[in-house]
Amino acid sequence: MAKIQIYGKTYSLKSSSDHVSMEEVAAYVDAKMRELAVVRSKTSSADLAVLAALNIAQELMELQEQTDANDKTHEEKIGRMIEALEGEIQAIER
To answer: Under a CB-based contact definition with an 8 Å cutoff, are residues 47 and 24 in contact?
Structure first.
C-alpha cells in the first residue's frame, strides 16, 4: 500500500501495475493539476481533477492511435517480407 500526495491531499492506494509505480503516476497527475491551476487559478480542485483526467485521457488516446498506426505499418512490412521470402524459397526449390 502506497501513500501518495496529489494536489496537497494524501491517498493510500495499492497499485495494480508492476511496470509503473503509484508514486510516478501520482506525481504525473499532480503535475497536470498544478499546470492547469496556473492557467485557471479560480478553479476548484475537483474541477482541476476532471480537467487533468480529460487531458491525460486525450494523451492516452493519441498514444493508442499512434501505436495502432505503427502496428499496422509493421504488419504491412512483415507481410511484404514474408511474401518476398516465400518468393525466394519458391525460386530456390525450382
So the answer is: no
Chain centroid, CA 35 distance in Å: 19
Residue position matching grid coordinates 497527475: 29
Cell numbers placing 69: 498506426
Paired with 6 in beta bridges are 9
C-alpha cell at 7: 494536489
Q: Count CB-CB contacts under 10 A for residue 28.
A: 15
Per domain, the residue ranges of the chain are 2-93
pLDDT by 10s per residue, the chain, length 94? 889 999 999 999 888 888 889 999 999 999 999 999 999 989 999 999 999 999 999 999 999 999 999 999 999 999 999 999 999 999 998 8
Instruction: Write down the H helix ranges in the chain.
Output: 22-39, 45-93
Task: State how far the Cα of 26 lies from the Cα of 6, in Å rounded to an integer.
Answer: 6
Q: What is the pTM of this model?
A: 0.74
